[in-house]
Write a structure and sequence with these properties.
This protein is 44% helix and 17% strand. With 554 residues, it is α+β, with helices and mostly antiparallel strands. α13 crosses α15 and α17 packs antiparallel against α18. The longest helix has 51 residues. The chain starts with a helix and ends in a 9-residue tail after the last helix.
Amino acid sequence: MNEIAQNAAPIVRHFRQILLWPLQIMHARVREPHISKYWELLEAMGDECPWREVDDEFGDPDDFQERHYKEFITFLPYVQRFLYGEGVGREGQSGYGKSPIRVFRRRDIARMKVILDEQAPPLLFHVAHVDLHFFYDLDVVILAVEFFANDIPLLLAEDVLFKVGRAYPAFWEANGQGGQCPYRVEWLSAAGETLAVSDYENRRKYLRFVCRHRSPNVAAHWEYLLWPLALYHSDREGVIRYRQIEYHRMPLLAYLSFNDPQALTRGDFARLALVAKAGPSDTLPYSEAELAHFEWQYCYDKFWDPTNPALSSRYLCCGHAFVVVGKASERFFADPETGLLGQFRHQYFLVNLIAHFHKATLMLFSEWLVMAISQLDIRDMDSVKIFKREIRRIMETFLRFTHRYWFHEVSNQAQARDLFRLLTGHLDTDRIYQDVSAAVKEMNQYLDSDGLRRQANTVVRLTVVTTLGLIATVATGFLGMNIFDETDHPVWLKLLILIGVLVPSVLLVIYAVAKSKALSDFLEALSDERMGWRDKIGMFCRVLSRSGPKIGRS
């Protein structure tokens, strides 16, 4: 990117980006018990863990600010309980309890240095937050990284949006640089010490990992950031294992203020909304046909009118990205407490967090169902039992997810409501939820029908055994009628008579159990008035000639 193009580009007075990276928590050992509170594993590390739980903002009423109040009342009551929990009631009893969300933060990372290309000068960003969001009873964790800078050219801002949030390279350039990735990313401490450096250029590392594990690796600076969470297949030590859920590009939020946002072109807005590669303002990132409905699909223009300078704030959303553009001099837009900047960092961040959490969790349920089916061997009774237990666990977890975490609406406030609908529409979470719900119901119906089938087979077998057992009952009952007086006979003769009756009776019952399915068919044929006696006798002969049941036959 040449210097002339950068100088001609509009200047972003304040640039702020938040990366959201949903990850699946994996069990380190096969078939280990499910863990509901993964954050306790971090707490157990003590001072060795760089993550510390964020204090509840609702702890001290004297420290509770208007910003916290405005954030709280943005959401509907059931979303409030999800995000913040519920406090003590009039009688001193807790209601809903604590929020099922736990947030942990790293405070050792102060800045991020980014070199976009080999010849480009380094960009220095201040890191506002590095947070981990855990969710009770779900194997999902979301990393949130917020960083910002002032007075950078729009072309560089577009390049940052396009390149920085990449977990690993999709390909490599001719010079060995990771394709569409920054040339170098460094995490810096408050003292300026380099804590970790990216390794997108290490092609062999990524190729070998995929070849060995059939799973993508993660860049070194992201691995450092997540520790003591460790990649599932990696050799690194870690108390929690994770792996990627979605695409290697992390979802993001971005805030950009300009002296005159209405000077931006349609091409600029398209690149920002779709997080496309940086380019000249007078060109489009894609074809005219592709962008024919751009404004209708990706723009929320309630506060935007090119003919009215007072309406200069624009929301852009494609699902993967949520971008806010506005005027730096407008208090409504730039105020960090009461303005749109404050709403962006808090209300709209939470709106995006909920939406991406929904999608990640639904994809996780799909993964669980696929794994349960793939490991099922219907010929192995142990495998069948494990499959049933796993499906029951998934059903129970999905039910709790539906009632605790799933929302179609999060707010009645116009902007928050409309933006959540726009976001979830692009993420297609409603359709994914319906698909997962239908799959879970199908699994439930299968288990119910399988249980009923097994119960029916058991009843049939018991009926056959009972029917044939009547023969032994009649025989023993006949002997008990004292028609034959064996009272004065020796004990050995009485025992012989007992054995002579008991052994055939036992053998008859065992035979009935072994042939219960075939005998049930014979009994059904015997009761069929349409069949002749020859056919019925032939059916009985076939029962006698059949081989015993095979293992695994139901």
